[in-house]
Every structure is written in C-alpha cells, then in structure tokens.
Amino acid sequence: MSHHRPIRPADRHGFDAIIDARSPAEFAEDRIPGAINCPVLDDAERATVGTIYVQQGAFEARRVGGAMVAANLARHLREQFADKPQGWRPLIYCWRGGMRSGSMVQWLRLVGWDAQQLAGGYKAFRRHVMDQIAALVPRLDLRVLVGATGSAKTRVLHALASQGAQVLDLEHCARHKGSLLGQLPGVAQPSQKHFETQIATALEAMDLTRSVYVEGESARIGRLSVPVPLVQHLRAAACIEIEATPEERLAYLLRDYAYLGDDPEALASRLGALTELHGKEVVQRWQGWARTRELAPLFEELMRLHYDPHYGRSQARNFARWNERQRVGAPDLSPAGIEALARQVLVLG
Fold first, then answer.
1. How far apart are CA 181 and CA 287, in angstroms?
2. How many C-beta atoms surround the C-beta of residue 135 within 10 A?
3. What radius of gyration do the chain's Cα atoms show?
4. Is residue 270 part of a domain?
5. Can 94 be counted among the known catalytic residues?
6. Are residues 168 and 120 part of one domain?
7. CATH number of the CATH domain containing 276
8. How far apart are alpha carbons 11 and 197 in whole angstroms?
C-alpha cells in the first residue's frame, strides 16, 4: 500500500473517484467538481455532535459521533463502495482534512483500497480555486462580446463554442441571464463559492495560447459577484460589438424570454424594481402588460426607455477599449443567422 507525499488539490485528477465526506448541506454549498457525497455525518448528526461538544466536551462528542460515523461508513461500504475492485483509488476530503475524512480513509485502507486524504481538505481546495483565478485570469487573451440587450450575445457564444472556439460562459456558471429579468424559471443560482469553483475549473482546462470569448457582463450576475480579477481583465480587453436592428432584437427577446409570460405576477413584481428610475405611471403600464401577458409592447418599451438609453454610456465607461471596438452587423438573429454571426466573429481573430 502506497503512502505518498501530501495530496494537493492539483493532484486530484489522478484518482478513480473523489469522495466528499462532509454533510449534504456543506456539499450543496460547494464541492470539488466530480465529487460524490458520502457523508460520515449527515446534517442532523453533525449538529448533534456539535451541541454535545459544546455542552459535554470533546470526549463525549467523539464517543457519540464515533458510533454515527461507524454506522454511516458501514452503510457506504455495503452500498456505494460495494462494487469497487481491489485496485480502486479514491481521494477523500472533508472540511479541513481532519477526522471525518481520516476515519473514512482508515476504513477503506483496512479493506485494502489505496485511499488517500486531501491535505487541508475543502479549505485547501477553496484556496486553490482563488489562487487559480488570480493566476490564470491575467493570462487570458479575452475577446469580449458586447451589444445592446437582445443582440443574442449568449447564443453567439454557444455557436462559437460549437465551432471550436474557447468560451467562458459566465451566465451558465451563474444560472442566470444577467439582466433584471434574467432569473431562470425554477432554477436556483449556485452559491458564490460554487460559482467561483466553476470558473476556476473552466480556466484550468483552457489553452492560454488561444483566444477566449466571453460576454461583457457587469460585475454582478443576478446575486452573484464576478471575481474582481476577471472584472478588471474584462474591462481592459478587446471588444467585439454585435449590431442588430431594434426589430430583430425585439423578435429575438420575444422568443428567448417567452417563458416570462408563464408567471405574469412574478414578472410584474420584478418590474416594480424600476419604479425609482422610471416613475410609477410608466412602471404600472409595464406591470399591466405583464399581467395580461402582452410581452411585445412591454419589451419594446423596456428596450427603448430602459436598456438602450444607458447602453452606449455604460459601455464607454466600463470598457477601456470601447472606442476601438470591432463591429459585426447582425441582420438575422435566427439560429442560422447566429451560426453565420459566430463565423464572422471568428474571422476577426
């Protein structure tokens, strides 16, 4: 049986499985990509042990917790690990590489598997994520897609990816379309930590000698903050502006946000956030259209009165190289038109 030097987060790819021994709530907040959750204590058990520790001390907490851990490990051996061959090599981690992962490693080694513990646990992985973002972001050769609301920037990004370009899809990582109405129906945004984990994982897989296409996001996507080094690098990068007519943009928005008509009250309530900017009368008109599912006049006015007036000013303020941007005309935002648009963007290099 091999006992290596300490296992670091960068070594994780050399294992057959990554096992997160923390509780389901900890796992849900953030985890190493690809990890499976095999808790040695579930959420309720962890709370119980914590209370005993405070009220009765470490020995009693270990005695009660030890019985729970043993029962959970026995269940994992019977169920999750029952079909694993003798040569199986799992990497185990808990919060900081302590007793929870240590106990699992010990049991798996007793069985005969070469189980290893991640030194420093999830906390070490978390540091690794932030270090990777800080180290890799400044080295990215970014091409930032900009364009007024409804220019199909995200779809162009997807088309670029399908044509072999490298893309960083921040809205996919954030599970949000980035605008006031960008919340996806029935989809919760991840935690800030998990958002950052996804970004770091995407960056690690990139070829730094090739361009990376990204959307010109603001510093926040829904309730999540784009990491500061990435915001700064985006602001300094070369821009490619997609120029589509208001008619084509409106048609695209009506297709892309059609689901907003499914919950008129939720839409009306979100529009309420614009009252301070546009006044009660205008917003009440918009809310009326929302409630009667009249998205065409609603989107037309939102574009004309809310999004477009601020667009040029905010871009010039946010992007240092706005004045030297390259422009691509987008006469057609149908799926075929978007594919053609992506090809044009690639030609710009």
1. 13
2. 12
3. 25
4. yes
5. yes
6. no
7. 3.40.50
8. 16
Q: Is residue 134 part of a domain?
A: no
DSSP run (H or E) holding 315: helix 308-318
Given a contact cutoff of 8 angstroms between Cβ atoms, the answer to whether 178 and 222 are in contact is yes
Given a cut of 60, whether residue 3 has pLDDT beyond it is: no
Dump the DSSP string for 95-141.
Answer: SSSSHHHHHHHHHHHHHT---EEBTTHHHHHHHHHHHHHHHHGGG-E
Choosing from 38, 94, 173, 239, the catalytic residue is: 94
Distance between CA atoms of residues 69 and 48, nearest Å: 13
pLDDT digits (tens, 9 = 90+) for 275-316: 999 999 999 999 999 999 999 999 999 999 999 998 888 999
Enter the pTM of the model: 0.93
331 with 194, same domain? yes
Angle at 95 between CA 128 and CA 230, to 5 degrees: 30
Which backbone phi and psi does 305 adopt, to 5 degrees? Answer: -100, -25
End-to-end CA distance of the chain, in Å?
51
Q: What is the pLDDT of residues 77-93, one digit of tens each?
A: 999 999 999 999 999 99
User: Look-up: residue for tokens 């905010």?
Assistant: 314
Range of the domain at 316: 140-348
